[in-house]
Amino acid sequence: MSQVLGLWERLRGVPGGERVFSWGFAWKAPYFWSVRPRFVQVSPNFAALTLPKRRAVLNHIGTVHAIAVCNGLEAAMGALAEATVPAGKRWLPKGMEVSYLAKSTSDLTCSAETDPDAWTSGPDVPVKVKATRDDGTVVVEGTIHLWVTDKKATHERATDN
After folding, report:
1. Where is the signal peptide (predicted)?
2. Alpha-carbon distances, residue 143 vs 12, 31, 65, 94 (angstroms)
3. For the chain, which end, N or C, has fewer CB atoms within 10 Å of the first or last residue's CB respectively?
4. Residue partners of 25: CB distance under 8 A and separation at least 6
5. Is a pLDDT exceeding 80 seen at residue 157?
6. Secondary structure (3-state) at 131
7. Is the link from the previous residue into 123 a cis peptide, with omega within 30 of 0?
């Protein structure tokens, strides 16, 4: 079990545990803190978080800015990837394709999902992502492509400059 998945499993049943996990996840990758993600599920091949609609992420028309939404989608994808990547493998995002379908007028649920078989047939692993308003309307959907390769051996990393 990955560190991220193990931490999620330990904290999710504790009062305030999801908040502690979310804070720790954003602390490890500080850029995600800008959208204040609140994880609601982390598991192999699926992760979801809420992205609160608040002044810091609004655009000029009072909706959640498209790039803030993409930041939430990438955070969900990152948790999924950490919970899913096979032992001995590493992942890097290599691209994102999204469609903006509706205005983001409420808090959003950002989710990421993969086909379990994609992790063994890679190296390209597509992650389906979507952001949904409180009323169930999908506001953004797309794919984040991951590049999944073998981890370098420890001695190789030590000699790389």
Report:
1. none
2. 27, 20, 18, 11
3. C
4. 4, 32, 37, 39, 75, 78, 79
5. no
6. strand
7. yes
Place of tokens 């999924």: 80
Q: Which two tokens stand for residue 149?
A: 């390769």
Question: What is the 8-class DSSP label of residue 25?
Answer: H
Kindly state the average pLDDT of the residues 87-114: 97
Amino acid at 29: A
pLDDT in tens, 129-155: 999 999 999 999 999 999 999 998 655
Q: Give, in order, the Cα–Cα distances in Å from 121 to each of 124, 126, 140.
A: 8, 11, 27
This model's pTM is above 0.85: yes
State the Cα angle at 32 between 124 and 129, rounded to 5°: 40
Q: What are 99's two structure tokens?
A: 């469609």
The DSSP bridge partners found for residue 7 are none
What's the chain's length in residues?
161
What per-residue confidence (pLDDT) applies to 138?
98
Task: Supply the pLDDT for residue 19.
Answer: 96
Q: Please state the φ and ψ torsions of residue 148, each to the nearest 5 degrees.
A: -110, 120
For residue 55, the tally of other CB atoms under 10 A from its CB is 6
- CA neighbours closer than 13 Å in the CB half-sphere of residue 43: 7
